[in-house]
Specification:
Layout (H helix, E strand, L loop, with lengths): L2 H4 L2 E2 L10 H21 L3 E8 L2 E12 L4 E2 L5 E3 L5 H13 L25 H5 L20 H10 L14 H15 L3 H13 L5 E2 L13 E4 L2 E4 L15 E4 H10 L8 H7 L3 E2 L5 E2 L6 E5 L2 E10 L2 E8 L4 E7 L6 H12 L16 H16 L9 H4 L2 H16 L4 H6 L2 E8 L2 E9 L4 E8 L5 E8 L1
Helix pairs in contact: 2-10, 3-6, 3-7, 11-13
Length: about 475
């Protein structure tokens, strides 16, 4: 059965009084945009909340939480968090900072004396703001194998740092997994139990918890992925993989609405702690990266915005807070292919037109292997590890020219809030032939900007031209 035939809409509105005309107009625009993107991106279900001043003003449920059983999404539907869970790990650490049990400047060797010598300058702050150099999970870690925290830690210790702590910014799941281990070291409690005690229970986040495939969890959504255009269930991972502190939580949209409301009240975190979490990172050389502790933190179109997305096991999520306007947009989706940055920015544009996305319609990608190769090269450029063999000879004739081109492209890509995610979410918007070369143009949508990436390939799939231009 085609997915489009399965996507029926259920809408729930939560308004303080009779909605005004402006509210009704916004509601209609939300419906129109979300439904169109669900159809185009083949998303089974979406849960959406608009929160103002800590109060839910619009609450909407679209499509199916479980396609096989035809269960509609509702406000109580429980989704996987992905990396929006990092802000809760960061909040737990900041609670310990407020209690005087941890300092942001503590070297982690204080808590882990057996850590390798290369970690001697890594601080708690470096783990929180992704400047530790630890990167992602080592290739040796198998997602379908169970590990103890100690076993994970041994793998992490063996992996070399990508750079000197504080020298660069590179998204690090390992850093947050270590923060979870650190929380147990300091409190004697599993980080998930600490979150329950200090955040979830006090705020009434009744369905928030660490992921468990074994437990009976009412209203749990199923996660999906697309394989050659066909809807499939999410791929499975081991139970221990779904317990690490880098984003392994369950939430309903109602849970996150309660979290948003609490951020105005000084509990569980003081406003001074939130200010630190939402302050941009300053690198060793004085450069600034718009990321705090578990939150991207930027000024976009003269508005202070903190946000974060999540992607894991057939789910996507996003929370965007406009700090000065006291407006928050939160959504969950149960498809791995959901372009969450595009969806978040499109929703923001309903309230703030300056966020409007470029008026470009994506094309069906009929050459997925070619697109994957281009995206892989972009990711390498962002990490400063591009392979010269991926490029045509004229790119490689002079090492200094290739280095200059690579550095310029890498700098442009790293100006995006999350280069890894945005590259994977790029959309094909043009495909043509030109003077014996195949031309591909992709659009990379970020919260703050959109980049147009034009790549020209030779007959043997070598890059003869690469251009990045802000739309």
């Amino acid at each position: 059965m085609k997915l489009a035939a399965l996507v029926v809409m259920v809408v729930v509105l939560s308004l303080a009084a009779q909605p005004c005309a402006g509210q009704q107009n916004i509601s209609a625009k939300l419906d129109s945009y979300v439904q169109a993107e669900m159809y185009r991106q083949k998303i089974p279900g979406v849960s959406l909340a608009i929160v103002r001043d800590g109060r839910v003003v619009i609450l909407k449920s679209y499509g199916l939480a479980n396609v096989e059983h035809r269960v509609p999404v509702k406000p109580e539907t429980v989704f996987q968090s992905g990396s929006i869970g990092k802000q809760f790990t960061a909040a737990a650490v900041m609670i310990l900072v407020e209690d005087g049990k941890i300092s942001l400047e503590d070297r982690i060797t204080k808590f882990f004396p057996d850590a390798p010598a290369t970690w001697s300058n890594v601080t708690v702050r470096h783990l929180l703001n992704h400047t530790s150099g630890m990167g992602d999970y080592p290739a040796e870690v198998e997602l379908r194998r169970d590990y103890t925290e100690g076993e994970y830690f041994e793998y992490f210790k063996k992996a070399p740092l990508s750079f000197e702590p504080g020298a660069r910014w590179e998204y690090s799941n390992v850093g947050y997994a270590i923060l979870g281990i650190l929380i147990r070291k300091v409190t004697g409690k599993f980080y998930g139990d600490f979150l329950q005690e200090k955040i979830f229970q006090p705020l009434g986040m009744t369905t928030a918890r660490v992921i468990s495939e074994a437990d009976i969890i009412p209203n749990r959504a199923a996660g999906y992925r697309l394989v050659a255009g066909a809807l499939k269930n999410q791929e499975w991972v081991s139970p221990s993989t779904n317990t690490t502190a880098d984003g392994s939580l369950y939430f309903s949209i109602l849970d996150l609405a309660k979290w948003d409301a609490a951020l105005y009240k000084g509990k569980p975190l003081k406003q001074s702690s939130l200010a630190q979490m939402w302050a941009p990172t300053i690198l060793n050389d004085g450069r600034q990266k718009g990321y705090g502790f578990g939150w991207h933190a930027e000024t976009i179109h003269n508005r202070r915005v903190v946000f974060h997305g999540g992607a894991w096991q057939g789910f996507k999520s996003h929370i965007v807070r406009f700090l000065d306007d006291r407006l928050t947009i939160i959504f969950f989706a149960n498809s791995w292919e959901t372009n969450d940055f595009k969806l978040a920015r499109g929703l923001a544009a309903i309230f703030y037109p300056e966020f409007t996305l470029p008026a470009i319609q994506p094309l069906e990608d009929k050459e997925p292997k070619v697109s994957a190769m281009i995206r892989r090269t972009l990711l390498q450029l962002a990490k400063g590890s591009a392979n010269p063999e991926s490029f045509a000879p004229e790119f490689r004739l002079r090492a200094e020219v290739f280095s200059e081109l690579s550095n310029k492209a890498g700098e442009t890509l790293n100006s995006l809030s999350l280069p890894v995610a945005v590259i994977h979410l790029s959309e094909l918007v043009e495909r043509r032939d030109e003077n014996g070369l195949r031309v591909y143009r992709f659009l990379l949508n970020d919260m703050a900007r959109s980049l147009s990436c034009t790549v020209k390939l030779t007959k043997d799939d070598k890059i003869a031209h690469l251009e990045l231009v802000q739309e």
